[in-house]
Amino acid sequence: MRRPSSNRKATLVDVAKAAGVGPMTVSRTINEHPYVSEATAKRVRAAIRKLGYRPNLAARMLTGQFSKSIGLIVPDVADPFFSIVSRAVQQAARKAGYTVWLAVSDGDPATEKAEIEQMTNHPVDGIVLAPVHSRARHLTVAAAGAIPIVTIDRPIESASTDSVEVGNQAGARLAVEHLRNHQYRRIACVANDFHLRSIRLRVSAYEECVRREKLPITKVILEHDEEVLPAMRSLFRSRRRPDALFVTNNVCTVQVIQALQILGIQLGKDIALVGFDDPDFFTLLRPPITAVRQPITEMGQHAISLLFARIRGEGPAAHARVTLPAELIVRESCGCSG
Predict the structure, then answer these.
(1) What is the pLDDT averaged over residues 197-210?
(2) Mean pLDDT of 266-282
(3) 66-164+296-323 and 168-295 in the same fold
(4) In terms of DSSP bridges, do strands 327-329 and 290-293 run parallel, antiparallel, or are they unpaired?
(5) CA–CA separation, 176 vs 178, rounded Å?
(6) 128 close to 303: Cβ distance less than 8 angstroms
(7) DSSP-H helix ranges across the chain
(8) Is the pLDDT of residue 162 over 70?
(9) Where are the domains of the chain?
(10) What is the per-residue pLDDT across 58-109, written as a single tens digit (0 to 9) for each?
(11) For the purposes of burial, counting CB atoms within 10 Å of the CB of 307, is it exposed (0-12), middle (13-18) or buried (19 or more)?
(12) pLDDT at 207 > cutoff 70
């Protein structure tokens, strides 16, 4: 398969020739038309990847094919992180005269796949997406399609799109180093959703920090919500009982705090804790929770800026990966005085 010369971009006709199909079949494959067989679609997608083809969005604008709407797909709007993201995206889109179609995947890849397909067939002009699983096959297909996608918080690992995330490793280092400054030596890391790249990066930064200090690594990786209480009970009954905890997201932090309350373990006295994510209600707990704060509103705003640039055909040839800094908010759960 020969790539077009470096001085011009691949066209839909180039893809059709490379895949041995007609241009209409390429267009239908991009838009996930049900009449295209899987074998043909697979051949077309391989040609798209090989040639680096990107659909001509400027042409859509000139022919008036834009809907002035975008899609937003998040795992859970009850999660404070994604509720703030949703609000930021909708506010920025509204200022630009766009309608936002919000869908919730409930953390289910099949639901997410169906939502992407519905939005693609609607069609919306672009999608902001927080993927359920960053290596899912349907994301590779969607990233190669005609509708631009910008991921937020969780980049797609199996394909290239514009993305916005926080400095996960730098944020985790802030948390662990703060605990070390309190002279804690048995720092355990508690994590769920380990399939997510963001969580894996936070855990790896924890490991790096404690390894550098020649301290024991204690990881508690949770698969299901109901595992939290027995896992905490086992951890605090073990010979390696921690004197501090680093928890990798806000949902897990709340579950850990609930488990500690049931076990009669007092935050800030019996155990220090720093969480990653800083929902507003952390200030209402006693003691208030020390946490790594993500610039969530700014993340949503950056995602919209990237998406609109792609819709207008103004985005750079290479996909942009925006990484925003995290901030440690010190309160009393880590042992600091109020």
Answers:
(1) 96
(2) 95
(3) yes
(4) antiparallel
(5) 5
(6) yes
(7) 12-19, 23-30, 38-51, 57-62, 80-95, 109-121, 137-143, 168-181, 197-212, 228-237, 250-263, 296-311
(8) yes
(9) 12-51, 66-164+296-323, 168-295
(10) 455 445 566 789 999 999 999 999 999 999 999 999 999 999 999 999 999 9
(11) buried
(12) yes
Residue 172: closest CA among 214, 201, 195: 201
d(C-alpha 290, C-alpha 333), whole Å: 6
Q: What number is the average pLDDT over the span 232-250?
A: 94
Pairing of strands 162-166, 321-324: parallel
Task: Please check the confidence at residue 209 and state whether its pLDDT lies above 90.
Answer: yes
Strand 244-247 relative to strand 272-276, pairing:
parallel
Q: Is CATH 3.30.950.10 the classification given to domain 66-164+296-323?
A: no
Cα 82 to Cα 98: distance, rounded to the nearest angstrom: 20
Q: Residue 28, SS3?
A: helix
The span from the CA of 212 to the CA of 106, in Å, is 38
Q: Which single residue is written with the structure tokens 């993927």?
A: 131
Mean pLDDT for all residues in the chain: 89
Name residues whose C-beta falls within 8 Å of residue 338's C-beta, 6 or more positions apart in sequence: 287, 288, 331, 332
pLDDT tens sequence across 290-326: 999 999 999 999 999 999 998 888 777 778 999 999 9
Report the run of H or E that residue 99 belongs to, with start and end: strand 99-104
Residue at token pair 């067939």: 121
Place of tokens 């869908």: 103
**Which amino acid is present at 310?**
R
Report, at the CATH architecture level, how domain 168-295 is classified.
Answer: 3-Layer(aba) Sandwich (3.40)
Residue 121 pLDDT class (50, 70, 90 cuts):
confident
More confident residue, 30 or 274: 274
The amino acid at residue 201 is L
Nearest to 282 by CA among 246, 329, 325: 329
3-state helix, strand, coil in the chain (%, to 5): 45, 15, 40
How far apart (Å, rounded) are the C-alpha atoms in residues 271 and 331? 14
CA distance 122 to 116: 10
